[in-house]
């Protein structure tokens, strides 16, 4: 089993590199299931629209995860209830539209894949306790009982919280990847009990930027320049950033995890 997990799509640049690179990556690497975080996929880098969701699925993505920007487009709360392949963080308060986790099947209907979307508590918008929610979900989705493989997208700000959730899920999931900070970390590895892990898998977008936003305007904002505008995405050539996880069919745990960085500034 080969699972592709991609970092946050950042604006038009991120969507463009996804369109150009994804189909070939899926074909060449014989990917069985693919996931991407889409919470920054809109043109302004804030939220996602129904049209963009549909376009992403047409490219071959199976599930879209998200984070703190999921509600930046008002329309999302209206269609997320019906679109079960678009997830929002599971530890949003009770009554929030949509689902925070789901069980899906591979295109050949051979395997069941569980996907859990969680968001950190530190320096993020107010949410329910993420570790308590993780414990609750683990009672509902059990590796090799309810699902053949299980992927966790942890959308968080700080590395320590991401690492802790990685160790919490070690042996309970196929992989845990961090999203949100848009910069890939170099700690790609398989943890002691067999779960593939990377603290942050980066973004799909223009790295000649400040985490995907126009660098000149970002500098103006840091320098308190009165001519600075609201943040807007950088529009240069994008890089596709994520991981490919190879997993064992018998245990559901990882055999190998490989960083994927292709196209744009970061590949150079």
Q: Could you outline the blueprint of secondary structure elements for this entry?
A:
Blueprint: E1 2-6, E2 8-9, H1 11-28, E3 33-37, H2 50-58, E4 63-65, H3 76-79, E5 101-105, E6 112-119, H4 130-138, E7 149-155, H5 159-169, E8 175-179, E9 189-190, E10 196-198, E11 203-204, H6 215-222, E12 240-247, E13 254-262, H7 264-267
Parallel strand pairs: 1-3, 2-11, 3-4, 6-7, 7-8, 8-10
Antiparallel strand pairs: 1-12, 5-6, 9-10, 12-13
For the structure shown, list the relevant keywords.
alpha/beta; single chain; globular; Purple Acid Phosphatase, chain A, domain 2; 13 strands; 24% strand; five-stranded mixed sheet; 268 residues
Give a verbal description of the structure:
This protein has a six-stranded mixed sheet, covered by helices on one side. The protein has a five-stranded mixed sheet with strand order 4-3-1-12-13. It has a two-stranded parallel ribbon with strand order 2-11. It has 268 residues and is an alpha/beta fold. The protein is built from seven helices and 13 strands.
In CATH terms, the superfamily is: Metallo-dependent phosphatases
Question: How large is the radius of gyration?
Answer: 17 Å
Order of helices and strands: EEHEHEHEEHEHEEEEHEEH
At the first level of CATH, what is the class? Alpha Beta
Number of strands: 13
Widest β-sheet, arrangement of strands: 5-6-7-8-10-9
**What is the average per-residue confidence, as pLDDT, rounded to a whole number?**
97
How many structural domains are formed by the residues?
1
Main sheet: strands, sense, barrel: 6 strands, mixed
The level of helicity is 10-25%
CATH fold-level label? Purple Acid Phosphatase, chain A, domain 2
Percent strand: 15-25%
- Gross morphology is globular
Structural class: alpha/beta
- Contiguous low-pLDDT stretches (5 residues minimum) are none
In terms of quaternary structure, what is this? single chain
Distance N to C terminus: 30 Å
Just name the CATH architecture.
Answer: 4-Layer Sandwich
Number of helices: 7
